[in-house]
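2024-03-11 09:14:02 INFO receiving multi-entity request
2024-03-11 09:14:02 INFO entity count = two
2024-03-11 09:14:03 INFO echoing inputs for audit
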Amino acid sequence: MFTQQLVNGIVVGSVYALIALGYTLVYGILKLINFAHGEIYMIGAYIGITTLAVLGAMGITGMSITLTLVLVFLIPMIYCAAYGITLERIAYRPLRRAPRLSPLISAIGMSIFLQNYVQVAQGARDKAFPSLLALGGFNFMGAYISGLQIFILATAVGVMAVLQLFIQKTRMGKAMRATAQDRTMASLVGVDVNRVIAATFAIGSALAAIAGVMVGMYYGLVNHYIGFIAGIKAFTAAVLGGIGSVAGALLGGFLLAMLETFWAGYVSAIYKDVFAFAVLVVVLIFRPEGILGSSDSSDRV
Amino acid sequence: MLLAGFWFAFLALPISGPWNAVLIGGACSFMLLAIKLFQTAMTTGPAGEMVARLWCALGRMWGQAAWLVGDRKKILVMILLLLSLPWVLDRYTTDVLVVTGIYVMLALGLNVVVGFAGLLDLGYVAFYAVGAYTYALLNSWMDLSFWPALLAGGALSMAFGVLLGIPVLRLRGDYLAIVTLGFGEIIRLVLNNWDNLTNGPNGILSIDRPTIGGMRLYQPMHFFYLVVFLCFMTMFVVGRLNRSRLGRAWSALREDETAAECMGINITYTKLTAFAFGAAWAGIGGVVFAAKQTFVSPESFTFFESVIILCMVVLGGMGSIPGVILGALVLTVLPEALRELTLYRPMLLGGAMVLMMILRPQGFLQMHGQRLPASAVLPGDVRRGREKTHLGGDT
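2024-03-11 09:21:47 INFO inference complete, emitting structure
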């Protein structure tokens, strides 16, 4: 029982962590919460379904499982990156100098728009995500671990490692860190701030797309509501770990998922979501800078 | 423009399928083209003059609308006209007006929080739910009648507002928004799952109608008068509050928190009062809602409901009382008129919020004497604007 909960928690945690990274990246640079991020994740899952359907019709699914897997992640990533860039262009860029309330409201508007657009276009009912991997599984210390779970964890960890390398080593990563520290100074030394912000949205959205496809594969069902709850929880994870910090998003994602799974397993499954929200409120009251956040957070909270 | 059309078609492709994607792309480029043409026509040629003249005429009409409520006699006539409405209209329309009235109260209450104090509350519907369930539960347990429940619902919502407010109001705007959103969901989930208390998703049935001096209010017309009375009360109280010392503290807070604190305003107390007042009105609205429906269930208190109320405030004009009333009116009457568009309503609302923020952040009607953003005016203009507010607002 205990190990099983632990395994489930780790899988859910990698999804939360991937979405939380998107919040953290955008927050680090714009000091704004991207309210529509959860919807991007949901759209990623839907595009995953479409991609699979198209690949199936083209006969690729039957030919090569590796190619299918690569494409089923890659195409939603590209699409969601495009969605992220468009979102930034429409709902954030025109309002960069506006009062703080304006981008918040436009982002919420965008989130509602996207959620209901998908509902109108795809129908309100659950959509099945075709199962791709029949990897089997094995028993380990009284817990059943499926191949899919290992695949999800491995993908998430791999993606996060690549992200960390990208931020630390590449030119764009350096520009992102510079912009996060001081936007005006960064633009003075020749960083194209608009490009950096667009790239940040693109990367965050691509990570959300990976999370969306993984959740689709894991649960086998997708609906247009998943973005709302997942968005709040991933945000909680980002805050728990320390918003603006990449390592914090990871820690927060896994920690929140663990807490939540154990709560659902041992205390009350009905109040699982309530528990997650309560964690958010408690963290914001007692340690708004999060676990890994710096304590001189006068400009953060 | 064609490029933008292609871009949107590309984005829509995997969600909507190829045909609809082409349609969406076409519609987008067409709209952008129309906007572009409109802008060119506005700046050059006779069409621009025409539009300008039309705009002037609209402005004059609005001026005349203001003339309609120019002095006491005219206000009296307008109120009488309003009160005679249910005798002219049929039951259904009156019922729509009752719903509108409840939304006007809610929107005015949220306006205190969002418009006056500049705090984004995304879980406003939670307080509405608290009010509705207070009446429903007290009525089914203790046979409490409507009028004391009105007070109890308002007070309990206010208490919830303060309880939520104390811990989170130290936080900056966006955190507050997401915590209130979470709080709204908590309330809904608890109502949905606490079967022993709230009867879960089935809701609470057969709540008593209100009575006045032995007369039972059950017709839409009766509720119309009740709601109109409460709306006027809300307008009066909110209007007075806005012009009070507290109201000025709220706008100081909204414009610049640090500056307000430097001027000796107690930030936490000021925020908390805004939150408490907003919550109290939602509670009262909830009691009226429960009495009108005689039935409450968690379904009525979803996040989307919060969004609709926020939309009324944002589209009408944050901080402007007539604007918010107009927003509530438009957003309740329009969906009734356009029933075939019900499916697209949430989508249109979301889009409207984004467009409004970009194109006209002040809403349909600008707040009286509102300060423009510093980047949009010269310093001299700001000073003049302030003087005007001071002379016009406080005498």
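2024-03-11 09:21:48 INFO post-check: Chain A touches chain B through 60 residues (CB under 8 Å).
2024-03-11 09:21:48 INFO post-check: Strands of chain A lie at 127-128, 137-140, 143-146, 221-222.
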